[in-house]
Amino acid sequence: MILRHLLHTATLAIAIAATHPATAQVGIGFGGVEHDADQPVEVTADSLSIDQTNGRAVFEGNVIIVQGDLRMAAGRVEVIYSEGADGSGVEEVIASGGVLVARGTDAAEGAEARYDIAAALLTMSGDVMVTQGATALAGDSMTINMTTGNGTVDGRVRTVLEPGDN
């Protein structure tokens, strides 16, 4: 049961509350259109361990999660389940070991990522780099509201702004 729910919701790791004040506002749509979360999720890893007593499942070693055109890669992905009656709801997803989230030409990478399911907040930290086509934005950490696509990048934000054709 826990494995079935894990595979159904593992993509929530893709999607992933900063403690610094916001220094840049970004819109990150990962491909520009809404993601279809009803597609099957494929998870590949070197190992999987499930601990029913503490409600955690851990994928380790070359973890790759794919759902449609949305992809995530990390060294380790931990899924924490809620303490509900059946323990089947995913509460939080934590990825570490170099995290890459990509869709189309949009990508975000950092050392770690944390996705709070209830708040729909993806927080990435550790030399975060966001690329959208030819545009790149870097900072120490980034928080994205996965429902709205709005986000903040904190800590010595770096980017190059190209003037548009008017």
Question: Your description of this structure?
Answer:
- By secondary structure, the chain is mainly β.
- 5% of the residues lie in helices and 55% in strands.
- The protein contains one helix and eleven strands, in the order αβββββββββββ.
- β9 (135-145) and β10 (150-154) form a beta hairpin.
- The radius of gyration is 16 Å and the shape is globular.
Mean pLDDT score, rounded?
A: 75
Rg, rounded, reads 16 Å
Termini separation comes to 56 Å
What is the N-to-C order of secondary-structure elements (H for helix, E for strand)? HEEEEEEEEEEE
Strand content: over 45%
Helix proportion of residues, in percent?
under 10%
| Overall body shape | globular
Main beta sheet, described? 11 strands, antiparallel
The stretches of 5 or more residues where confidence is low (pLDDT under 50) are: 1-26
Decide which structural class fits the backbone.
mainly beta
Strand tally: 11
Q: How many helices does DSSP assign?
A: 1
